[in-house]
Here is the input.
Amino acid sequence: MTDLSTRISNIIAPVITTDSQVEIVEGDGSWVTDVHGKRYLDFATGIAVTNLGHRPPTVEAAAREQLSRLWHVGGSFLFESRANAAEKIIAAAPDSIEQMFFMNSGAEAVEGAIKLAKKTSGRQGVIVFRGGFHGRTMGSVSYTTSKAKYRRGYHPLLPSVFVTPFPHPYGWGMSQEDANEYALNELRLKFKHEVMPDEIAAFLFEPLQGEGGYYPASREFMQAIRDLADEYGILMIADEVQTGFGRTGDFFTSQVYGVDPDILVMGKAIANGLPLSGVGASREIFSGWEPGSHGTTFGGNPVSCAASAAVVDMLHEVIPGIAERSDLAFTRFGDLQERHRTIGDVRGLGLMIGIELVKNGREPDSEAFAQIARTAEDLGMFILGCGPDYNVIRFVPPLNVSLDDLEMGIDIIDRALTAYES
Ligand SMILES: Cc1ncc(COP(=O)(O)O)c(C=O)c1O
Here is the structure.
């Protein structure tokens, strides 16, 4: 234990676990430096937050400029950076998004989206998809089913939340088509046996499940949910907290699939690391939220909004380069899959890639991830895991990572796999 880790374990609640002993003092682009001057490739990106790397110059300049003029006045006063951020995000988002409400964290934005859906529809039920992660607050944890552990000790959770399967083709040993059909059939049975569709305010889903193991929904499944939503007047809420802001190759994954949600939840990379989140929807939907029926003190603070506007500007330049990086990564991981028996599946979109580690066929190998992450750190790279068994490498490099750094990161995973298998 270092001095710092001793101090932290004494005074920071143990509910947040520290996996690494590295004391990080600086970040620059795709790299961070520790207190001893050792550099690490940061492919954890603060859980898919620093999508543009550390301290991207134009974002830093925008935040500094705002910091030198105004930090906080609250949402009931006028300041320009909030309008700038909202205008730029709306212009980049699916056509269904016409207005924004800003908050501070992903969980808060999920709660806001559900409150909006309930208020505007007058209905109270919510359908969520098994394996989804939507946050840790009492409301959002009631919608989170990526791990039972996140819910243990907090019951009773919110009522009238109905959980239905999300297609997990690899986990179920099925084709994507069969997995979609199975999941849709379960949803139809839910409407037959458990709740009438006209009591459901919203479908809440991630277009590519994150914490749950990096499972893309597929365009066909998204479209089927859209069709059911239209048929029954249910609002479709896309939680794009992790999948948004370029991560899967376009501004939002809804655009990658070409399926517009009614309500779009944003967070994480929205300001590349400064605290900000938001909900977007049409003017008509927001008109159901009468003034005063929701609110926030810090939400949409001037500095985070200035950073966010600069993030969107920069993403316009970065997004066209994602396809090349994504193709390279998928080709390299495909090659690794042929050479390493521990890799069971490689899946994802853009630069949101899950590499599932298994043993004895399809059995999740959690120890493999733990050991590979440790070796990778020794070799100079941070990676995170995901999935209910924490056996999936969550590969989320910065979207503007250089091709050399990207290759270097995959080489490190290759070496770590070799060390684990030998
Ligand atoms: C899809 C999704 N929704 C919501 C959240 C919650 O965000 P936060 O941790 O900022 O509250 C997360 C966080 O990982 C997430 O991945």
